[in-house]
Prior knowledge:
Oligomer: single chain
Number of helices: 4
Amino acid sequence: MNAIAAVSSAWGIGYQNDLLFHISPDLKRFRALTAGGTLIMGRKTFDSLPGGKPLPKRRHIILTRSPDFFREGIETAHSLEEAFRLTADSENVWVCGGGEIYAAFLPYCSRCYLTHVDADPPCDTYFPKISDNPDWRVLEEQAPDTDGIFRYQFIDYMNRTPEKL
């Protein structure tokens, strides 16, 4: 299981149910890494997708507390255990947000693909600061780049001790 996100300098990931950044190379990286895989996300994150519809060429598992939640083309889970059961036979699983979902699933992730953005916009949702966690170490770090607006850097982390599903 992997996690993927773009984080601000303060490890923010969202504000008022929207992403903080729309950086083309980051979105292309997300698309390339997750294509053909299974995405796990919360209902609010799913609702924030373009048109509130599933992303193409990916399986979607939406974690929600609402027993009546239904959208065409997705599967729902109402607990971590149910999400784990739904992904038991999947190899390419990606945790995609929001903040509570990341916090719950990160201990089970073996890798985390982050885009660190050198900006600190207002945010109300955060990614756990894995750089301070001794279980996580930098695996690969690309040189900083810019999209003309934001300076960003792709940094991939590895969990030394992922918990078993």
